[in-house]
Design goal:
74 residues, mainly alpha, flat
Length: 74
């Protein structure tokens, strides 16, 4: 896939979308228009939120299981 902001060719592998996202953020963020910057920032926050959730779930455990064990009569 070719970057629409430069001549760089990104390989078509399983990580294509993520690689393109990081490429645009690191190399072309300043050249994005207001709408594209907003969408980039939203995607970045969503990815960070997912990472935070997965880390919390790994450290604390599944919230349903914790809630049910604390409030269980058994």
């Amino acid at each position: 896939m070719k970057c629409k902001y430069c001549e760089k060719i990104l390989s078509d592998d399983a990580e294509l979308v993520l690689n393109y996202f990081h490429h645009v953020g690191s190399d072309h963020y300043d050249s994005l228009d207001a709408e594209d910057k907003m969408m980039y920032d939203i995607r970045k926050k969503m990815m960070q939120s997912k990472k935070d959730y997965e880390l919390k779930k790994k450290n604390v455990g599944d919230s349903d299981l914790i809630f049910n064990s604390k409030n269980s009569e058994i």
